[in-house]
Amino acid sequence: MKSIPLWVAVPVTVAVALPFGLWLGTWSLPLWLAFIVWAEYFALGAKPAVLRVVVPSFLSGVVSAAIALIFSLLVATVVGDAAIVASGDVSWFVGLPVALIPIIYGMQFLPFARDTGTLPFFNGLSMGLATFFVGIYTNFGGLSLPADSVLLPLITSVPAVLGGLLGAFLGWFNVAIMTPFGRQTPRSAETVVDA
């Protein structure tokens, strides 16, 4: 049986993703984030085994971002609206770097976050920060906390986690629909790119 070429599989995969970003109302996922994780799947080899690295590393990165954001918001309770340029920016300039130093140091103790796991870990970290700072996920799924709550990053991390899991699925799905039925193993990333 002939396989589906990449130029057909990618648009099909995008179509599969669209309902998650368009039809779920307050639960709609950040498709931009899912597409980034999908690309990671290809960058790291496009094989199901990659998911054992991408998923825990990405999720650890999102959790790390939430921890760093919560710490920075706690710093804000001490320094208040102290500013370098914008009101309250001191808490971010102090809080994020101070929180990230032990988090990044601690990566070495997470076996899945070493070597190839570094990319998805940092991607999870950046996507966790992004879903907070874009400001549109503060009431994700109707979950809400007061705007000044130090726990707000817990809500904004939910779409980051779900979007990352969707992206991991999209990567697997994209390769799976390119693999002829009956084959025992998916094609390698090199073959996928050549398709």
Description:
- This protein is mainly alpha-helical and 195 residues long.
- Helix content is 64%, strand content 0%.
- The chain contains 7 helices and no strands.
- The protein is globular.
- The two termini are 15 Å apart.
- The mean pLDDT is 90.
The count of strands amounts to: 0
Helix content: 55-70%
| Element string (H = helix, E = strand) | HHHHHHH
CA radius of gyration: 19 Å
Q: How would a textbook summarize the main sheet?
A: none
Q: What's the end-to-end separation, in Å? A: 15 Å
Poorly predicted runs of 5 or more residues: none
Quick check: average pLDDT? 90
Amount of beta strand: under 5%
Class derived from helix and strand content = mainly alpha
- Tell me the number of helical segments per DSSP (H or I, 4 or more residues long): 7
Shape descriptor reads: globular
List the helices and strands and how they pair.
Blueprint: H1 6-22, H2 31-43, H3 51-79, H4 89-106, H5 118-133, H6 152-176, H7 189-194
Helix pairs in contact: 1-6, 2-5, 2-6, 3-4, 3-5, 3-6, 5-6
Brief synopsis:
This protein is mainly alpha-helical and 195 residues long.
Summarize this structure as a short list of keywords or feature phrases:
single chain, 195 residues, mainly alpha, 7 helices
